[in-house]
Amino acid sequence: MRPIRLPEPPSPTMGVPEIFETGANSVIRRAVVIGNGFPGSENQSLGLVRALGLSDNHVLYRVTRPRGGVNDWLHWLPVSLHKKLDYIVRQFYYYWTRKKLAPSHSVNGAAVGLSTVLEADLKHIVNMARDSFEKDGPLLVVASGRDTISIASSIKRLASDNVFVVQIQHPRSSLNRFDLVITPHHDYYPLTPQAQEQVPRFLRKWITPREPPDGHVVLTVGALHQIDFAALRGAASAWHDEFAPLPKPLLVVNIGGPTGCCRYGTDLAKQLTASLLSVLDGCGSVRISFSNRTPEKVSNVIIKELGNNPKIYIWDGEEPNPHMGHLAWADAFVITADSVSMISETCSTGKPVYVMGSERCKWKLSEFHKTLRERGVVRPFTGSEDISESWSYPPLNDTAEAARRVQEFLAERGLRLRP
């Protein structure tokens, strides 16, 4: 009788099966992203998932609110209460008129041509995490934005042994509802002496956060995003034919819109056009883009004053969006001060970034700009700059650093990402 020959143990050079290393249930192979329909928030989650190497194995769910009519004035309500109120209004309307209200406009699904985006259903996600745990291991859940807080924390509460939940941006609630919180340092501005002086004493206990960051909070300088070396290299190739022939230096101007912490109108638009005209002789070409938050009165001033200049091209908003091409091919940027996301992306390129209107910002946004200036990452745009001047700084690397910290926290839990 021939002896039974047992299989040889796995060779180190061939790789060790996951079950021999740390167990099949200790390897994270997939991610769920919970978004709120706003690119500035969702790009942060998608950027982190990309940096963790899970961009090819993730699903995007979206928390949606009723839209249109009075609903646009009710965004201060918790999303669950908002939906219930919308349902009650519809029932009353049908009772009195016997007619159904037209469906609320949604930021989800077919309403915006995103049929692959699923409604964020708590029970479905929890059951998926539990039922697939033995086969596929734990689930990484990444959420960003106020409307995602409730569902992300509920997923952790109901399936804590099957998920690792990361909440991006300070949740304005108990941090232990999540496994990890990633938030900009300026979210803690309310705790500084300067902020305390700006708030009446009787209101201070209502300002959040009320406690300094604890051990499972990762602080960043700016916002997370999807811009890295590989993305820029791909964009440089994809947009080569359009941007390579442009006269240099190429100045890219990104214009956002006023926010509660950074208010402006046509006054800033006029100041911006005057400054651009002052530096135009030193530019080979200028490309201007507006965001979907840019007020029409602001864009109209820019178009009227600069639209007919042969050196200047103003993007008309039609697809394809040249944003990635701008990041890859620009020699310098001018950004309005209102958008942390836009500024964070451009400051990750290592190219000169000039900011317009930071003196109009207040509260935590003023702290963000102060930090960038102290680090030498941005300079104010005054109209006296030499755009051909190249100056450098350590690029913001928040997304990669946050991904590294996530892996450290996973290791503390005995988890690791699929190699």
Walk me through what this model shows:
By secondary structure, the protein is an alpha/beta fold. The protein folds into 2 domains: 174 residues, Rossmann fold, CATH 3.40.50; 152 residues, Glycogen Phosphorylase B (Rossmann fold, 3-Layer(aba) Sandwich), CATH 3.40.50. 35% of the residues lie in helices and 15% in strands. A 7-stranded parallel sheet has the order 4-3-2-5-6-7-8, sandwiched between helices. Strands 11-10-9-12-13-14 form a 6-stranded parallel sheet, sandwiched between helices. A two-stranded parallel ribbon has the order 1-15. This is Mitochondrial fission protein ELM1. One of its GO terms (cellular component) is mitochondrial outer membrane. Pfam families: Mito_fiss_Elm1. InterPro entries: Elm1-like (IPR009367).
Q: Which architecture of the largest domain would the CATH scheme give at its second level?
A: 3-Layer(aba) Sandwich
CATH domain topology of the largest domain: Rossmann fold
H-E string: HEEHEHEHHEHEEHEHHEHEHEHEHEHEHE
Counted beta strands: 15
User: Radius of gyration, rounded?
Assistant: 24 Å
- Look at the structure and give the mean pLDDT: 86
Number of domains: 2
Percent in helix: 25-40%
Strand content: 15-25%
Overall geometry comes to globular
For the biggest β-sheet, the strand order reads 4-3-2-5-6-7-8
Describe the largest sheet: 7 strands, parallel
CATH class of the largest domain: Alpha Beta
What is the terminal-to-terminal distance? 43 Å
Q: Helices and strands: which structural class?
A: alpha/beta
Extract low-pLDDT stretches: 1-22, 105-115
The number of helical runs is 15
